[in-house]
Amino acid sequence: MATNRMESTQPAGNAEKSTAPAAPARPEPAPAGRLAAWLPLILALMAMPPIAYYTTTWLILPKVGFLPQVATPNPPLPGVPSQKVEAVLKKILVNVAGATQRFLLAEIVVAGTGEEFRKAIDTQRSRLIDLASSTLAAKTLSDLEKPGARNQLRSELSAGFNQCLGRNLVEEVFFTEFAIQ
User: Based on CB atoms within 10 Å of each CB, which residue in 59, 123, 144, 180 is the most buried?
Assistant: First the structure.
């Protein structure tokens, strides 16, 4: 019978041993070679945050049309004092409308400019506190829990204070404390 070509090339004494060449052993890479393999990934991870920041700041935002506005104070008008004056209306405690055991505690700061504002606040302080407490007491719990309720209260109080003072002296109204219990 014809012999297989592979069998015929083997010597007769080594028929049972295979002569396939063994794969050469791969040498273990040196420690510096391991770091070199990870170096591109490390550099990419370190470079991505600054690249993302500058891309957003200098390329994307200007094209979209959004640029952060730097707040610059308005220049003072001639003859008008530009010093802000704040007056604190002490803690005002009122019952919430429609609730028997709910209270609203608020401390209000009113801001304006000039000595005229300070004098008007000092002379009308009791009226302003009464106006604030009656405005706050008229609000129900659902009115106070709505989104934007504080901003609405600020505008109502500002309009009421200016009406009480007879002039538009109140520029801003702040709540330094506002708690519902």
Answer: 144
